[in-house]
Amino acid sequence: MNTPCFRPKYSSYSFVKCLFAALVETGKVLIDLPSVVRLVYEFKQKHPEYKYMFDDIEFRRGTDYIVSDDIIEGISRLQTYNAVGKLNPKYERLVIFITEERAKSILDECELDDRKAYIELAQSFQGNIVNA
């Protein structure tokens, strides 16, 4: 970045909060935790027009893995606020406790294009989510 002082449009936490609200909006409340970072990274690669949404999120990529401490930290903060939780510490699935009303209000704070992007990203979780 060439800008000496820069505040991203979405912090890593607000990105994760909006993503989880979009998951609720699309009816998905049980997610496979290990797939979250991979699906977000794939979405970022496929949609360079939404690059600004990922300004506060760093990805590290190895030969057979993709890691993002920023996304994991955002999920941990949501756990702290009881917005998500694990069914069992040994299982890698998260339950989203955000209500439909709260999810709508979170997404209403986003611009229309951003909201569409979050919904599209949430829909890419199709094979990794159990609908409630």
Task: Tell me what you see in this structure.
Strand 4 and strand 5 form a beta hairpin. The radius of gyration is 14 Å and the shape is globular. Helix content is 46%, strand content 14%. A 4-stranded antiparallel beta sheet has the order 4-5-1-6. Strands 2-3 form a two-stranded antiparallel sheet. It is of the alpha+beta class and 132 residues long.
Quick tags:
5 helices, 4-stranded antiparallel beta sheet, globular, two-stranded antiparallel sheet, alpha+beta, 132 residues
Largest sheet, spatial ordering of strands: 4-5-1-6
Beta-strand content estimate? 5-15%
User: pLDDT under 50 segments (min length 5)?
Assistant: none
Q: How do the SSEs run, as a string of H and E?
A: HEHEEHEEHHE
Q: How many alpha or pi helices?
A: 5
The termini sit apart by: 42 Å
The best one-word shape is globular
